[in-house]
Amino acid sequence: MLNSIEYFTLRGRLGAGPRKPTETSAEGTDQDLLWFLVDCISNGKSEDIFTDSRVKDILCRPFSTSVFDDIKEGVLSYVKNGERTRHVIALLIGVSALKLFIRSNWTGPPLDNHVTEQLFPDAKIRTELSTCCLKALEVDGEPAYHLASNPALLVLANILLVEACSFSSAQTAPLWACRCAYVHQLVLLHRCSELYGYINDDLERLDTQKFFQDGPVPETQFFIEAAMYHLHHFEVNKAQSYLDRAKQFSGATFELTGALGKRTYHQQTSLPQLVLSVRRSCNITGPSTDQHCPRSDLPKDVTLKDDTIMNEIKFSEEPPTECSLTADEQCLILATCTLKKSLSSPEPLRDEEMMAYIAKITSDPKAWSVHFSSLFHRSRLESKNSRRVERAMSQLQCLADAAKNVLPAMDTRQELFFCTALPTTWSVEKELGHLFFSLGATKSALDVFLKYELWEEVVSCYIQIGRRDRAEAVVRERLRAEETVLLYCLLGDATDEPAHYVKAWELSAQKSARAQRSLGMHYYRKKQYEQAIPHLVKSLEINGLQMAVWFSLGYAALHAHDFELSVKAYKRVVNIDPDNYEAWNNMANAYIRMGDKQTAWRVLKESLKCNYEDWRVWENYLLVSVDIGAFEECIQAWHRMIDIKGRHADAKVAHILVKAVSGGVVGMTGRSARSLRKKLLELFGRVTSGITNDADMWHCYGALYAVPAEGDDVCEEDFERTLQYYQKAHRCLTHKPKWEREVESCCEVLENSREIVETCLRGTKTMTNAAKKQQLLSTVRVTIRGTLSVVKAFEANYLPEQIERIRPLVECVDAKLDELSQCLA
């Protein structure tokens, strides 16, 4: 019977609770209280639980600053000294508190404060109670949102579900502890690692115990829920793994495909449009969420009213009839869409793909929370589009209003809540405020931020419009009412004075990750990296789940030449976000500075997996590849850079590659570089076709043709190519205006002239065609004599030390020309 009660609590269906046994329980017994709780939950009257004297006996304590410690002590004593019935009673009270807190801050309908008043009836201590709640909810120095409604309910849920979990024999206790920790995480201003540790441990325990098999929660729901928890904490690999398992159990497959259709009213021709195709296998097993919320009770889907873009795509042909999606399947589509957003950087194609996922859900909504979250995601995407931004604004306002409506009931709204990443009421309003600000409606944005006391947004808004004085005034006014760590940090942001961050740190009793983060970022923005590092490190010691801070620490350490710390920081970034190519790239840079180019090369390969289109990463990969002897990868990287940029030349790398091929250098694969001659010739051909005025590249191209293929000698055709490309290099050098006046340019031209003459002499020795031989020799002699005459004509203008550098080269070229003239005689 206890199992069925727990299962009913998880499913949360009104009127579907287990029936009380016919034999009556004695009034005042644990059994009697248990059935009272079941009756309240079954009839949708969870708030009545906290008016019951028996529940008050368990929870109520005389108010003091340590009231929640006293409640915790009493609850743990109640659980430890009782049988499983008491464990389930504590679980049901905790679940009711958690659901009422979710109702107050996420789903609605609005909840009066009378629940808290029943537990803490003394109105005089209302402000002190709020302070105690916020203090109890603070984790790793990260505060909770101070206007969260009924925070005492979350504190009580924490005690009953998380603190008591290790003493509870209730089968579903670990899942509810996990859920409570997740909700707690959502009301904090920033993520913290301590709560994620609880969540991860509970998920692993549930997964190991195969909790979902033949259990109260369908496999698909459990896996989606686990995926969303990991995704919220940047663990995309774990999230992907759980979603893959969810898809396997659901039997549904999703595929983005194309279908001809029209997107605008004026479009004459149908064009391919992205659409999500869903197929379902017939071997689906297990329970599913099959109750649907009436359409009239769902959040309103605002129609797009634009004179150009249609509200929805009009397809040329009706798509094949597909099965109607269950709420679980819609939830899985939404989770996949959310994962796609985390895996890819913002770009038009990614946004179009997400819109195709969302359109599939909103076309036939089933669950309140899934529909709400889908519309919220759509609004965020459409806020970037000038023709859709008005709908996005109206939709966000409708969502804000939907949480205030009386219908539907709480349990209907909260169905699949933990699988949907539903935004809090203040998050919806904050998004609306950001949208106002992006449209230039600064006053409307500030009205929203001030109404919900989103002080970080208020300060940021004023700073962005250049009104630091107003930001400072607002924060100082709040500080006169109450001094908090967050407000002092915001005062530091507004005034750019680090002393305020120090004050926040002292006020927190050296526990605020926010204060140290702000202090570190103050020095970081001023490029005082060595001063920033200790504060960033301290912040991360308190709360390690700050990806942006880890990235900033890595960058600061890199510039401060603390390369080991930089590598450590960037490793944490890529552990949290494996697709952060900038972190991979910067980590490789740190390894290069440490002299570990082999590791740097492997790290850069990971960076390229995350971003295949950034030529700067490819350039780093190219340079490291040539340094470690990965010559084939270097050639591939160079080709890729040309694909991206259109053209690219690097004479230093080209010289190294030619030298490696000519010397038969053994690369990292153990093969001789001579085998790459053909591929390198193809590369140089592509380079010089795009860049025709690079003398060094033409010279390298010619030098490569002078290298015989494996097991062969240089043929006459290769000799002619060598000579031709050396001459092109010569033309590039001598076309430079006033080249003879610069000693370096002059010496370079003379060196090139010598190589041309030597190549011509060497190559013509074996030529059998006398006429062709004479032509080549004559052409070279005329060209080089002209070059020498220019140098000799300007010789009087050189300084003595310059003449000492140039004269040996002139004499050498003269001697080679005499030798060439003898061949013509």
Task: Report a brief summary of the structure.
With 825 residues, this protein is mainly α. It is built from 38 helices and three strands.
| Relative helix content | 55-70%
Unreliable stretches (pLDDT < 50, length at least 5) are 22-26, 285-289
Instruction: Name the shape in a single word.
Output: elongated
**CA-to-CA gap between the ends?**
115 Å
User: What profile does the largest beta sheet have?
Assistant: 3 strands, antiparallel
Cα-based radius of gyration, to the nearest Å: 36 Å
Number of helices: 38
Question: Order of strands side by side in the largest beta sheet?
Answer: 2-1-3
Average pLDDT works out at 87
Proportion of residues in β-strands = under 5%
Structural class: mainly alpha
Please report the total strand number as a whole number: 3
What does this structure look like?
The protein is mainly α. Among the domains are: 215 residues, no CATH class; 205 residues, no CATH class. Helices cover 65% and strands 4% of the residues. The chain is built from 38 helices and three strands. It has a three-stranded antiparallel beta sheet with strand order 2-1-3. Helix 28 runs antiparallel to helix 29. It is elongated, with a radius of gyration of 36 Å. The chain starts with a helix and ends with a helix. About 1% of the residues have low confidence. Belongs to the TTC27 family. It comes from Ornithodoros erraticus (European soft tick). InterPro entries: TPR-like_helical_dom_sf, TPR_rpt, TTC27/Emw1.
